[in-house]
Amino acid sequence: MTDLLQSAIHSGYFTLLPRDRYLDPQVFEDEYRKVFSRQWLFAGHISQLAKPGFYFVEEILGESVILTKTQEGEVRAFLNVCRHRGHRVCEGTSGQTQRFVCGYHRWSYALSGKLLGAPAMPDGDGGVDYRDLSLFDVHVTVYHGLIFVCLGAERPAELASQLADKTRGIERFRLEHTKEAFRETYHVKANWKVLLENYLECHHCAGSHRELCKAMDLGAMFEETRGWVGEYFGGSTPLKETALTASLDGHLLSTPLGDADPANPADVEGTGLGIVPTLTRVIVHIDHVLVHALRPLSPEEVSWQTRWFVKADAVEGADYHPDRLTEVWRATNGQDVELCQAAYKGVRSRRFVSGPLHATREAAIRSALATYTDMMSAAG
Amino acid sequence: MTDLLQSAIHSGYFTLLPRDRYLDPQVFEDEYRKVFSRQWLFAGHISQLAKPGFYFVEEILGESVILTKTQEGEVRAFLNVCRHRGHRVCEGTSGQTQRFVCGYHRWSYALSGKLLGAPAMPDGDGGVDYRDLSLFDVHVTVYHGLIFVCLGAERPAELASQLADKTRGIERFRLEHTKEAFRETYHVKANWKVLLENYLECHHCAGSHRELCKAMDLGAMFEETRGWVGEYFGGSTPLKETALTASLDGHLLSTPLGDADPANPADVEGTGLGIVPTLTRVIVHIDHVLVHALRPLSPEEVSWQTRWFVKADAVEGADYHPDRLTEVWRATNGQDVELCQAAYKGVRSRRFVSGPLHATREAAIRSALATYTDMMSAAG
Amino acid sequence: MTDLLQSAIHSGYFTLLPRDRYLDPQVFEDEYRKVFSRQWLFAGHISQLAKPGFYFVEEILGESVILTKTQEGEVRAFLNVCRHRGHRVCEGTSGQTQRFVCGYHRWSYALSGKLLGAPAMPDGDGGVDYRDLSLFDVHVTVYHGLIFVCLGAERPAELASQLADKTRGIERFRLEHTKEAFRETYHVKANWKVLLENYLECHHCAGSHRELCKAMDLGAMFEETRGWVGEYFGGSTPLKETALTASLDGHLLSTPLGDADPANPADVEGTGLGIVPTLTRVIVHIDHVLVHALRPLSPEEVSWQTRWFVKADAVEGADYHPDRLTEVWRATNGQDVELCQAAYKGVRSRRFVSGPLHATREAAIRSALATYTDMMSAAG
Description:
Three copies of one chain form a homotrimer. Helix content of chain A is about 25%, strand content about 25%. By secondary structure, the first copy, chain A, is α+β, with helices and mostly antiparallel strands. In chain A, the strands form four sheets. A seven-stranded antiparallel beta sheet of chain A has the order 3-12-11-6-5-4-7, with no helix packed on it. In chain A, helix 4 (about 190-200) packs across helix 9. The longest helix of chain A is centred in the C-terminal third of the chain and has 26 residues, at about 320-345. Chain A is globular and about 70 Å long. In chain A, about 50% of the residues are buried. The model of chain A has no long low-confidence stretch (mean pLDDT about 95). Chains in contact: A-B, A-C, B-C. At the A-B interface, helix 9 of A face loops of B.
């Protein structure tokens, strides 16, 4: 246990971190190097790359990242930065192309990132070696159709192997055979860890999340979150006995995914996974998938994005209605944004010191902060 | 005399401080610790806490502060920060309550600030001791109905004793028996000391403040400001012989306060007090009270607030008219905001060095900067 | 060659500077002292000071600068900062006056900058010596009617002598006998050097600047820019054989300047000058003059201004039409702003390193960065 974590132990109980960890720009810089750029971050879904040459662009941690599929069908990720003078090589947000051509001086790159041509500057001329001038590569992995990237130099341990024991049975929901039905992004004025902490406990749910508590089994959720230990965790969001999915009335919101059967309690239970501290949370219900992704922007700002996925062949307006599909989590996110911003105002107080966390209901915060502290204490 | 002040002496005359004192974020941090958080700052009026359980919330120096009256009738002040995870315990700006309940996890506090309950976390359980978890206390004092707070750890010397010699006769105006009739807040793009300096001299009034100069006796004011020495000072704003109050025509603007009598020259003279360098200025005219309060926001931004008080039983529309009551100082404040912002542009110039201050007309600036310099030179 | 420049040499080819030079606030501060405040910066035209007492105010590098003509006909420049407490002494942007009077405490200054009077503070009284309290002087020079200032303490080498060999024949265009017909200012979210670099090469023009390429001879321009070596350079913007001026159709846009004759190829060739790295670029065509001026605002923001001048007696609507006069460069500037902002996003990437610059087409960048590096390496 590191010194930082030690300081979060107070007369026998566990607390949040010291105030400066939520404010200090230097801490944020360290977090960038030691946490954000060493983890798999959710970037999109394989349905966005249906064919070779399809691409899309994501803004992640201040970088513009291109995700694309090569002619060989491989998913690749690059920085959207021309190797000449830095201009973006993709100016739109998605499309299909044979090559990426920088709009500034017409340098062109293959889908594999290789430099194809620099006008008036042929390969080998005057010391220029095209092999050194491919687009900057970004680590990428695909997990049951979900695309994750890592911005740092080192490729993290493989996501599939990290999650293997934690997401048994996930394959029957055929996540790769879904499509995005909706997304919502919130710009939140709070340190990213305040959102992380908020997400990791349901102790505040009864008082604040009326819609979420309609179908969710709060008592079971208290137990569930205790199991959220380590950088990777699995597990569903438990429902009340009467509910088939996380809807206001417990009724299905869309066509069951993959081979799932509403008559099968294990399928109704669903599954899920999480990565902390740079939070990605995937909740698999029988009829839809939620992905929450937290993207820190600065010490005092964070982006929170939620995407809803349904079965690839579900028909909008017939099989699912976006308004109904999203109403529980749009309400919940809106409530959480308010809570986090109000909590962060207190964390910014010059006299703020955290009080005690609840030993079990807030145990997942303790676990995630321990993971965070370990990462921050690593060399480099 | 400290080195800093010494540097403000130039070939025999006195100047403003060196340029960096008006720009440097580190100086502002030091000022927070050594000046702002060691002084009594105006926070409101006792009429806002008419009964036990009444409360109001003020934003002061980046902190949200709750002012309230206990069942025993005591005025108390707390940070509006839950001791659990920092969420605000008061979300509105005023009201009446039996207890403060945090909207995040339902921790509840008595009007005395004591923790009453933390759900699922009983007192004494797992090392949790409610006695350690009261709301953060803020020093508070009431002076003739005016409420002041101090945000620092140390309680400053008692306001009443500091002012005793300087505000003789103030009691006959019954400030505690007034009510707020109007307030106006200005967000000014200037260092707070530029506003302080502007307020402390009337050398600019003839050229800039037509409305203020209608009733104010400028020559007497030059004399008056020379007496503004030390952290606390008293004294009225002198009027021309023909004026009963600071109005455009010299006529009364509201019912005389307390026992004051327009036929009594001493009552027409009025009284007042000031605190520097974190300026609070109270001007007591026979029929209304003005409170100016300066609240620094950052090295380059400051809030300037003026409140107008009239006799508690004066009737709006009959005894006083808000437009007329406020027209002199709304005009004057608007003019001062422009002057201070334009002066600050010059102070920011890389070549700025202050010229000479007028030996008598700008003497109060010299005095206040000496007080400032003494505070900044103190240990801690 | 300095270490900084050395680091821009990579396996035989030349690159941009290291990424931090485009981001770091401390680098920007050093640039202010060592580059921006040591160069002649374009400030205006002598036609703005037609008579003694005429003045105009320019915002340059965070300073408000007054340009004026004395009774003796001398052009002078001062900081717009009162020597008392910093308030602006000119509140408008131009006019005619006998003296500058500060609106705060009525200090007044002669057109020569001398303090004429400080109310209630006579010269010689209490150590006050008016001779020490003139307006802060700014270096100024006039070159063929173009006014330049230098904000630093040291007067730079005389502009006329620096440019003498580079602008032969410029006098026949009678730049002093022109008037401003239009100006446009762009606030660009990029480091100033990204705009400098963009301006110094035409390698991007064919792909991005359709309008500019109508009349400009791109091949000749590639040659021209190779000659842009050192802090000062001369030279025209070469036109295609069929064009008389830089218009969309090659036809004249206004009355020929001075003694210039459209039948004379040397007059059609025009002339021009440039100053780097704080870029001023003057392009003299036979019928109009363009002045581009780059004014850094912060590490990540820059102002780019273009002014168009025509013969002093040309009549708007008859001899020239502002829309037509300006359409090439308004289009070009708009395109360059987009390019520079997009390039700067890449330069900000944490993994950005510049690729190779083209040995000849981007040679002027190499030269200007060498000049920049030499200035930054100087003592002081």
